[in-house]
Amino acid sequence: MEMVTLKSRRREVIKMIKRKPVLVFALLLVTHLIHIIEEVMGNAYFIESLYKSLTNFLIINIILLVIPIILLYFVFLKKKIAYYFSIIYAGIMIVDGLDHVIRWYAGFYSGFALIVLGVFLVYYLYKELKNPTERKR
Questions:
Q1: Residue 19 in contact with residue 121, Cβ under 8 Å?
Q2: Which of 59, 85, 61 minimizes the C-alpha distance to 73?
C-alpha cells in the first residue's frame, strides 16, 4: 500500500513541476542568478557607487534571490497570494532587464532573458490565477 501512495505522489509532483508557471519561474530564477554573476564579472559601476562594496551587493542580491525561491515554493503549492507577489517579482525583473538593455551596461545579455521570461511568467501566472480549474486552492 505504501508503494502505491509513493508512486501516486511522484506522479503528482511531476505533474506540478510540468506546469508552465513553475517551469518559467524556475528559468527566471536561474536567469536572475546568471544576471547577478554577469553584473559581478562585468564590474558593474553601481556595485561600488550604490552598494559601497561587492560583499554588500552579494548579500543583498542573495536575499533578493531567496525571496522568489520561497515564492516559487508557494506557487508550486498554488497559493493565491504567492501568485500576486510573483507577478510583482516578474515585473521587477522586467524593469531591471530593460534598465540594463537601455543603458547598455553589465547585465546587458541576461537582461534580454529577464525581460522575456518575466513577461512569460506574468502571462502564465495571470492565466492560471484567472482559471479556477487550473488553480484549485
A1: no
A2: 85
Nearest to 79 by CA among 24, 135, 132, 25: 135
Q: Could you tell me if residue 120 is left (phi over 0), alpha (psi between -120 and 50 degrees) or otherwise beta?
A: alpha
Estimate the share of the chain in helix, then strand, then coil, as percent rounded to the nearest 5. 80, 0, 20
- Low-confidence residues of the chain: pLDDT under 70: 1-4, 6-18, 132-137
Whether 94 and 118 have beta carbons less than 8 Å apart is answered as: yes
CA angle 54, 67, 112 (to 5 degrees): 70
pTM of the predicted model as reported, rounded to 2 decimal places: 0.81
Q: What φ, ψ does residue 107 adopt, rounded to 5°?
A: 105, 5
Q: Which three cell numbers stand for residue 127?
A: 492565466
Tell me how far apart the alpha carbons of residues 135 and 137 are, in angstroms, rounded to a whole number: 6
